[in-house]
Amino acid sequence: MAQGIADKHVYAWRDHFLLIGPKDNPANLTVSLTTTIEALFSQLFIAAIASDNTVRFLSRYDKSATNIKESAIWTSIGQTPWSYPFAFFYHINPEFPYQALATAAKLQEYTLIDRGTWYGMEGKDDDMTEILLNPARALVGAYGENKTMADAFAEWIARQDGGQKVVGEFAVNGVVLYTRAPQQITNGL
User: Fold this and answer.
1) Chain-centre distance of CA 57, in angstroms?
2) Which of 18, 44, 104, 177 is at a distance of 20 to 30 A from 56, taking alpha carbons?
3) Other CB atoms closer than 10 Å to residue 47's CB: what's the count?
4) What's this model's pTM, rounded to 2 decimal places?
5) What distances in angstroms separate CA 166 from CA 32, 80, 169, one per listed residue?
6) Left if phi > 0, otherwise alpha if psi is -120 to 50, otherwise beta: which for 175?
7) SS3 track for 37-49
8) E strand or H helix at 156, and its extent?
9) pLDDT confidence tier of residue 144, bands split at 50, 70 and 90
10) Would you say 178 and 17 are in contact if contact means Cβ atoms under 8 Å apart?
11) What is the pLDDT of the chain when averaged over all its residues?
């Protein structure tokens, strides 16, 4: 927006991230409704350092929203494993979400993934922790050829009886993937 490339944006929908890992939970993460994501990352870090390379974390390390969120969580607990060559547990694997998830599963590693990708694959979870929010916004280019239609589409996305209804009902394999944008900030966020 500041560069003038787009002149409108609306809060389109909300996705969330999930921390997933091997079913046998080699890090012995304590999972409960009150466990914070920071506590889980701290437990993961401690278990990984103490392990004989059996506890690993896969990072897409591609500057995607997932990677940025994961980096923010690591930093919030005082760790930056990507900056240490001896952080053997931190597996850098810049792939698209489905490929990264498949690699993490094959190698039995923990990783951060968005709910949309998770529910599009086998397996289910329903962590709605706000720190794992992945907000999606629709941007309208300032110099697009069909700006009137783009503006109308962005307005439709923000309407509760339009795009927000579609977002709130969009499901894969019977699971609704996204949550609506908050009503008070659907325009001009």
Assistant:
1) 15
2) 177
3) 18
4) 0.65
5) 31, 39, 5
6) beta
7) HHHHHHHHHHHHH
8) helix 147-158
9) confident
10) no
11) 84
